[in-house]
Amino acid sequence: MKFSLRHQSTGKLYPYIEVLSHTMYWGFFRKVHLHNRSGVPSDKPVLLAANHPTAFVDPCLLCSYLNPPIYNMTRGDIFRKPFFRMLMEGINMFPVYRARDGYTGRDRNEAVFDFCVEKLRDRRVVTIYVEGEHHLDKRIRSVQKGIARIAFEAYDKHRLDALQIIPAGCNYRFGDRPRDEVMINIGAPIYVKDYWDAYLRDPAGTTQRLCDDIETALKSVCYHVEAPDDDVLAERLLTLLRSENTPAAFPLVSHNDGRFFKGKALIDQVNEMAATEKNQLKAKTDRYFDLLGKSGLHDDALMNPAWASLDRILIFVAGLIPFLIGYISSWPLIWLAKYVADKKVSKPEFYTSVRMGVGFLAGVPYYIMLLLTGIFAGTPLWIAFGWALPLFGWFSLVYVEIWSRWRRARSAIVSIHRPDLIVQRKAIMATYPLAGYASGAGQKTD
Length: 446
Known about the structure:
The protein has 16 helices and nine strands. Mean pLDDT is about 90; it is low at about 1-10 and about 440-445. The protein folds into three domains: about 15-225, Glycerol-3-phosphate (1)-acyltransferase, CATH 3.40.1130.10; about 230-295 and about 415-435, no CATH class; about 310-415, no CATH class. The protein is α/β, with parallel strands linked by helices.
């Protein structure tokens, strides 16, 4: 019997999850940067070619912040249990069946490809995570050929001149912890019709060329460190750059602020550096970060002494009661999400997905229960209190972060190592490729 996608991604839960997810992001992220969000059209067939640092956070973000409803390809083993199959199909996820996950038989993926082709015929957006695996490395791996096969099959069957492949980059500061910073970038479209005549003459060669072009396009919207040996250097330079320009806490979402592309240009310059020059820069950063670690200090605190201003003590005193309310009310939820993630997750790529998923699935009924408790209390004050508890929970997270920054900045101000660290830091920032970003200690660049 030929395998088929029985429900074919019903999308019944999609609009509800999409609305609720924005509330969840306020707690889970410090900042979301969007670039070219409108670059994905809602009335044309689109294959979204995305990287895949995390298991489930990437599709959630793309579905939440891009306008058209999106269908996401995901690993087929998640669909084995009926509950998870219903949940995945309810939010427009559909499976791909890989041999490494224990699946055999071409009919499964033939049905998956047919499903994608029909969605493209209906002018939908279908996301393919083209590297074929999750990884947190700031590096794009080879693009798998499945996306090219789907693209050419869709064009062959329906002559979709508007069919386009659009690169989508999800770039995290960490990727394996809450209160992260993420940058979502949408690149320029690649039109499948431009490859069709060449494909008729040389299918294999044109398929590879299209995959190579997708890989190049994806590298333009993602951090990409060419050599694994440069990973530590690149991360340290990004740390220095971020400290030079810390983003404002409000609003949560920032549009087209150019923050990603400063870091992208920095990494691209590292990729192009001569070995001698790169080794000199590595030696400087090693000395600086070694002293920073021995001093128990943080680079962002060293560069932002304003965080330690004494007037913030008044903020801490004034916000203490709301903080305690939010901390106590949200603690069971935060503890549960962390406990499950710590117990069940062995790979860092899955950590944020599990923690965010548990927090979301448990958080909705949890806060509904607290709200109903306020309603049953029967007074407007308790009802208002029940509605405000999620806001108090978010406030407690921000309160802790501001307090942590204040303590770290105070430590940096009084440290005997501060003068030496500033001298070393300026020497690094004056070095190619960082000269364009250099600024004085305690100042920020645009």
